[in-house]
Amino acid sequence: MSRIPTAGAVAAQGASSGHTALALAPLVREVIGLDLTPAMAMPFAQAAHERGLGNVRFLVGDAESLPFPEEEFHLVTTRRAAHHFPHLPRALAEMARVLRPGGRLGIADMVAPENPEAAHLFNALEATRDNSHVRAYTVEE
Question: What percent of the chain has pLDDT over 70?
């Protein structure tokens, strides 16, 4: 975290209730949490208020069509959300588009097993557990 510019702007894709966005907020000028689910706005705002964070805001939006200009952010993150994106390459291209030159993209997500049968079972179980699950990728992918 010491490499995050303190004057920088951060976008957290798939922000949910703000775990990553709110953890980064004390380190940067501004954090925008973006999530496709409008119901996440209230828990996000409540958690920000409880922590006394005034430099965060929540937007409803799609990671595959980000509502930001090019080269807007020093850091873009997505944590435990990429497996929900229907078109992951499109979402990654959008994240790259809004990063400033030299900016960083941080991704943390579940990983499917390399064995195709195990990966199929893994994804089927995840889809049963969470109907918004699209696909977890293998490390090789």
Answer: 94
